[in-house]
Amino acid sequence: xxxxxxxxxxxxxxxxxxxxxxxxxxxxxxxxxxxxxxxxxxxxxxxxxxxxxxxxxxxxxxxxxxxxxxxxxxxxxxxxxxxxxxxxxxxxxxxxxxxxxxxxxxxxxxxxxxxxxxxxxxxxxxxxxxxxxxxxxxxxxxxxxxxxxxxxxxxxxxxxxxxxxxxxxxxxxxxxxxxxxxxxxxxxxxxxxxxxxxxxxxxxxxxxx
Length: 209
Fold this sequence. Notes:
By secondary structure, this protein is mainly α. The chain has helices at 4-16, 28-34, 39-51, 70-92, 97-116, 119-136, 140-159, 168-183, 186-208, and strands at 25-26, 55-58, 62-65. A 3-stranded antiparallel β-sheet has the order 1-3-2.
């Protein structure tokens, strides 16, 4: 069977990648059979995923994948809108030359993908971009917090994917962020990081309404 931590990661991945749909009811017995493990680790994975706000445990009903609700997502974006630019700003003075080169490479790859429309790869690169920047911010609390918030952003990407046909909008702000990092310009880095989120939010809003 799978190790305890793997079952949590696997279920999380399925929810984020929209393989388990919002509102879907998960069955503890079926999942324990699928992974050939006892129900105890499945139950504890459910509890962790409820803490991540990816599942809702409903008494006498079962375990339900969280719905995606724009009001709830707005609250999340209110937070990332402050924290992401803050992390980006902090990263400017700390990021290594090597990481900046990697960010440039990612931006270049994203430009190529915009032509091919390889959506999944675009999401992965977007995540990697954010991860590099957040790792460089030097604040472990911020890193941990943004890590758990970005799970939901990534889930939204997957959920709204038919609406995100044009990834060029994101690449524009990414190259500006990289430029700001090279120039050591904290204000500019912070501003474009915020703009990146605002672009994303307005796209999501169009998609969900």
